[in-house]
């Protein structure tokens, strides 16, 4: 999704901005651009369709020299990907702006501005902001005031960075509904939509809040103003994950690196949260125990991969805590008449903490009679974290591959902690100790599964020429099958669907033939025998079966049956373990097909528009 970088530095900023854009590439985008204010106060701009490398090529031999600049990666919403629609957008040759988000009243504003003589050259909603800012600058003769007056007229979501040649020593930033952080340098100051973009220049960040406007001035001065225009101080926080997270560390792709980090990040997510035999309920916050005691229902809301984690949690919370649980995708939940029974806990799951629909669902829920809200999230300081009553941070570290892997398994671990914590406050006493012990041993088991990589790579060859695939699972492994199908379609572009295995004969069996590989998730649980009969139905129709099965199951590989033996694991924790071979399968199929594994076409890492 769109990315912003801005800099007010003691040196030329082109390289800082370019490096920032490269670090934002993982979010998904289709064009890139940059504007720099030269020492003689001229605005120079360069834009290119495609990758940041295309912009870089244009800048070679044609460098943008100057100490102030703004840059952007665009993911098309209003208007196709083209150079004209790429940011920065200008109003004449005086003002440049980059924007993330969507301006909902852009048509009305455009009509008004056109009537006042402003000429539009793009199809974007952002150009409206450029002209609006220019108009307000003419009236106020001050860029900060022009931004404050303009944002008051905008409806929708925005993060902005703005420069004007009449004030060649300031960059103004503003946010509402889209994230923006200030990077604190020594005698320098920076802006970005994601701290990762700036780790090459600083590890100190101020997280701007809704409605904040900031003025960065030459010399490193940072002045923040809240939505009411009052000067405010917000503390700078040290970014903890270090810079190594944004390199591939010897792996061919970020996705593979992140798959292999899973045992380590799961251990980090468990750290400090387990007692001898029980989960520590106050891991969810000091008020958690009291809040959880009154919980009679749980509503879980999320999007994409995070939604699949929620689907698994439903089985866990109902089984281990006896609390009825509903799970729904955020974009559906927020548009229906939701009935909230007394004592309902509202839980959001999100890697980024900025997904527009999930955030809107939280705000919608806060208007209703929930007992409280809990966010399970991977990004400290994100909007979801700030706006929830309770939070549990996953410790996946920055995830760069668009297809989520380690964020998903750490969410599952966090959700198991939630199920155990709810069970504990409702009187479970000691009977969950084996699961707590299993969690401690989980990182070791994950390492054993990762050692199956070579075997899975060999299996993947059977998929490279296929156009469709069917994933089957039962119980808590149905959402794991869904996640496996999602991974395969996201990065290999093979159409994949998942079904609860019991539904096979109610439709999808009609599709099964030798051209449709069928992947079954078969842990050794109470549904195993039923799953085996479902698999017979596939074999009888000439289907090619790939079974990921517990090593204790008696099932031998033969001509049309490929068995991958997965280390034995308790029923409760099996969904976490069985996720990993499915991630590796999708990864190797995508590599064989030669797709862009880390940045699949049309997808974005963080979807900050509805
Ligand atoms: C996008 C990403 C997915 C992610 C989903 C939800 O679609 O490509 O990988 O699962 O957003 O994101 P969140 O940050 O809320 O978990």
UniProtKB/TrEMBL annotation:
**Active-site residue list:** 2, 605
Where on the tree of life does the source sit, at the highest rank? Bacteria
* EC id: 2.6.1.16
Please verify whether the record's keywords include S-adenosyl-L-methionine.
no
Reaction(s) catalysed (UniProt annotation):
D-fructose 6-phosphate + L-glutamine = D-glucosamine 6-phosphate + L-glutamate
Which keywords describe this protein according to UniProt? Aminotransferase, Cytoplasm, Glutamine amidotransferase, Repeat, Transferase
What SUPFAM superfamilies does this protein's entry cite?
N-terminal nucleophile aminohydrolases (Ntn hydrolases), SIS domain
Segments spanning the bilayer are none
GO CC annotations on file = cytosol
Concerning InterPro entries, the annotation shows: GATase_2_dom, GFAT, GFAT_N, GlmS/AgaS_SIS, GlmS/FrlB_SIS, Ntn_hydrolases_N, SIS_dom, SIS_dom_sf
User: CDD domains from the entry?
Assistant: GFAT, SIS_GlmS_GlmD_1, SIS_GlmS_GlmD_2
Where in the cell is the protein located?
A: Cytoplasm
* One GO MF term attached to the UniProt entry: carbohydrate derivative binding
Q: Which residues form the Glutamine amidotransferase type-2 domain?
A: 2-219
Instruction: Cite a single Pfam family from the UniProt record.
Output: SIS
Give a GO biological-process term. Answer: UDP-N-acetylglucosamine metabolic process
Q: How does it assemble?
A: Homodimer.
| Main function | Catalyzes the first step in hexosamine metabolism, converting fructose-6P into glucosamine-6P using glutamine as a nitrogen source.
Entries under PANTHER family matching the protein: GLUCOSAMINE--FRUCTOSE-6-PHOSPHATE AMINOTRANSFERASE, ISOMERIZING, GLUTAMINE--FRUCTOSE-6-PHOSPHATE TRANSAMINASE (ISOMERIZING)
Question: HAMAP family this protein is in?
Answer: GlmS
Specify the protein name.
Glutamine--fructose-6-phosphate aminotransferase [isomerizing]
